[in-house]
């Protein structure tokens, strides 16, 4: 499945208009095959995650950080449920970054991000991230242009530091089309069990669609590197975006290739202890 | 499936020797049926969890806390993977309580517990809990007898406070047999991919088995109430303990009966906005 991950990797400028949100780069099957492929990889993902965690119990320092950006309705929640949900919940920590609190605003924009970086052995997942500070901040003028300008370089430097700590960063933009977003918002309005997901503010943001796409292009161009590439994942077909993100996670773990730690105790002696004295309660 | 939950509920003293760890109270099927039943309830669990979370976005304050205690190898990890893993990871937060840190030890024993109580709408899961402070502390003499004595009452009071905050507490003891623990520890020794789970200290604890069973009996007798019952879940058959804990979770959610919140916006007006001005990007 490296065809998918190869097809999505971006290490420089990107023209979002040229990436069809309905396309399925690197995968020529349809929905049913996509869903089967998503199921088929679950076991391998689970094994690699367990190895990563096991490694950390013996001092391993490696971790994974999956960062998911995207417009409202682009499917971030579905990624959490259907991709992250494939992993043992003990090995995963999801953090959703909402509008910053007063305390968070009193600090540098990377402060709250730094605090949520995954511990060794863990798969951290960010639902939104430090990129909000160059996306909505740019579109809505929440920060001065020169402040935003400075942030791109700060982000590149920050992500280099993350890599040096042994954290494999996967940067994903779920690329949904304006039309599909309209359809999904309408569905939220038409179904009472979806009303809680609807926020009138979503339409305010929707009216700035082109500005958001431009802000994404600038952010990607300024922060996509060989070491910290972006992945623009077409997201009009949910089955594809889920499969694609799962493949990105799998690829990152395969590259880490975590190993079962070797025993730091004498296996034969422990066996003897267990079969001998440990065979009956002493108290 | 309330047959299972009814059969496991303990509201007073318990004689653990009379509960067979290989039994399957309230369920007369075998492994295959148990596994099917575990699968069959996943969808209902997911719906109720989503409702609980949705309710909280409109100010609902209710939450669930599943607390899992048990000897080493009793299957706590499997509960996390196979039961908690059935739920949308966005709605769950697992906290494993290890030996307390220096900071934690400098506070009251409930301090670190209080900090991890689930937020409204969430399902919190504790892997071990404040009961360690009356279990290992009693068996190993880590606290003076009068201190431990006082803790039972403190726990009852604490759990009453949890309930008053709208948190449904589910207290579980995974009841594995001494023999089955021996088998499972041997398996960990025999498989290199399980060595990382093995700790020579496990056998030290195993040698105090009877003292642990006594400590559990005392803890349960002193803290099992109508409002905060215990559930002693036979755990020699993993398929049963998983099904049983899932049923306890399901029952707690059914009792809460969380509701989809009603829209706090004008649905028709939003529809018009979406189809009208929101139909094309303005920027």
Structure explained in plain terms:
Two copies of one chain form a homodimer. The first copy, chain A, has 13 helices and six strands. With 283 residues, chain A is of the alpha/beta class. Chain A has a single domain (2-279), classed as Rossmann fold. Chain A has a six-stranded mixed sheet, with helices on both faces. Chain A is globular and about 75 Å long. In chain A, 40% of the residues are buried. The mean pLDDT of chain A is 95.
CATH class of chain A: Alpha Beta
| Widest sheet: strand ordering of chain A | 1-6-5-2-4-3
Helix content of chain A: 40-55%
Largest interface: A-B, 53 and 53 residues
Within CATH, the superfamily of chain A carries the name: P-loop containing nucleotide triphosphate hydrolases
Largest sheet of chain A: 6 strands, mixed
**Shape call of chain A:** globular
Q: Report the span from N to C terminus of chain A.
A: 56 Å
Q: Which architecture of chain A would the CATH scheme give at its second level?
A: 3-Layer(aba) Sandwich
Q: Give the C-alpha Rg of chain A.
A: 21 Å
Number of helical elements of chain A: 13
Order of helices and strands of chain A: HEHHEHEHHEHHEHHHEHH
Oligomer: homodimer
The stretches of 5 or more residues of chain A where confidence is low (pLDDT under 50) are none
Number of strands of chain A: 6
From the 3D structure, determine the CATH topology of chain A: Rossmann fold
Mean pLDDT of chain A: 95
